[in-house]
Amino acid sequence: MSIFSKLFKLFITVVLMPLIPMALLLAYYQSRQKDNILETHYNLAEVVSSDINHYAEDLNWRLSFAQDIQALLEEKKDPLPAMKHALEKYPDINVLAVTDGTGKELARQSREGLFPTDNHLSEQILSEMAQAPRVYIAPLETLQGTLEFEFIVPLKNGYFLYGITELSDLADRLQQMRIGQTGQVFLVSTQGVLYNGPSQWAPQIEAEKLKKHFEGKSRLFKNLHGRGDTFVGAFSPAKPLGVNVVVLQVKEEAYRSLHFANLILMLFVLAIAVLAYYGAKTFARSLGEPIAELAQGAREISHGNFDYHVKEEIGWGELQELMISFNKMTADLKDYQALQLKNQVSEMKEHIFRSVAHDLRAPLLGLQGYIYILSSGKINEEQRREYLSRMEEAAKDLSALLEDVLAVSRVEAGMTLPQRQRLQARPLVASLVNTQEPVAAEKGLKLSYDVADTLSVYADPKLLRRIINNLLSNAVKFTAKGQVIIKAYENEKNTFIEVKDSGIGLTEKQCKEIFEKYRQVDDAAEGYGLGLFISRQLARAHGGELSVSSEPERGSTFTLSLPKEDA
Question: Which of 118, 135, 312, 435 keeps 20 to 30 A from 518, CA to CA?
Answer without folding.
Answer: 435
